[in-house]
Amino acid sequence: MTNKISKIAVLTSGGDAPGMNAAIRSVVRTCAYHNVECIGVYRGYQGMIENDFKEMGPRSVKDIINKGGTVLKSARSKEFMTVEGRKQAYENLKNQGVQALVVIGGDGSFTGAEIFNKEFGIPVMGIPGTIDNDIYGTSHTLGYDTALNTVVEAIDKIRDTASSHNRLFFVEVMGRDAGHIALNTGIGAGAEEILIPEEDLGLERLLDSLKRSKESGKSSSIVVVAEGDKIGKNVFELKEYVEENMPEYDVRVSVLGHMQRGGSPSCFDRVLASRLGVKAVESILEGKTNYMVGLLNDKVCLTPLEQAIKGSSEIDKELLRVSDIMTI
Ligand code: ATP
């Protein structure tokens, strides 16, 4: 391994996701393993601008693998969107002797990292951390698996009350641009219909489906709706629409909201974070830059940051068919 780098900084940026702490731990410990110094940057890019750094060694990341959120805190930094802000950040990193940067975050954070590299030449490596799973170049982002489990558990509880009262529930889950959470939890929790940003089910088909469901003897139903579903109506508007057209239904709404981001990471996310952290640091030490580490076909691999940012992570259309068959 060609090891010219002696100090690496790590930060978490954008929305937090379970597994970020496990990734920080992995980056810090892989640095220690290769005798490279590591510093943590608090509050993402904003902390880089404000000199908010902390030396990190293997023991400073004990007891965090099981914790949700991020011990380094996360932030969205407007100042980093300006050349002056990025220049200040670079000066601060230089003063600290930092020679490379690991960014744990989403595509916005990766865009910032790429621009930063272009302007100042500092090697950057991205680790995908976002519950939405909307990043090209990895089958799973950190936090996605945990979020799926959290949502399925919540819908199971909603189902108990739905079936006791013969109700129809619209459950809104996260996913403004991507339906991965809705599609998978919809199947996992046995939803009647799943509304996602990628596919326009249409209001008529929704009503037809609910009618069929009633006629087939089902007394309660769950419809999982992604925040950005293509029909363009939010869950409350959907409730009104169905109540107007199917007064026989007692309709309720549940918006799961930020609880989906929280909680202890699943075993899958902890292992993924550990693998991605090792690959991120070792890739930097091999002289690589401007890549995102990800998981494809269960192999850890590198995707150029530019592709990860521009590409889209497609839903598996076969899952739509599976969902249709399951709701017979
Ligand atoms: P999430 O998927 O949770 O939204 P994200 O990483 O996409 O995560 P963003 O808010 O889009 O979250 O980006 C995080 C931060 O990255 C921004 O607050 C900003 O500091 C930096 N950033 C994003 N886009 C740019 C850009 N074009 N130039 C410079 N910095 C950027």
From TrEMBL:
Species name: Flavobacterium haoranii
Binding site for substrate: 130-132, 167, 174-176, 227, 252, 258-261
Class of this enzyme: transferase
PANTHER family noted in UniProt: ATP-DEPENDENT 6-PHOSPHOFRUCTOKINASE, PHOSPHOFRUCTOKINASE
Pfam families xref list: PFK (PF00365)
Name of the protein in question: ATP-dependent 6-phosphofructokinase
Cofactor: Mg(2+)
Organism lineage string: Bacteria, Pseudomonadati, Bacteroidota, Flavobacteriia, Flavobacteriales
Domain of life: Bacteria
Catalytic site: 132
Binding site for ATP: 15, 76-77, 106-109
Family stated for the protein in its record: Belongs to the phosphofructokinase type A (PFKA) family. ATP-dependent PFK group I subfamily. Prokaryotic clade 'B1' sub-subfamily.
Cellular localization per UniProt: Cytoplasm
Residues that bind Mg(2+): 107
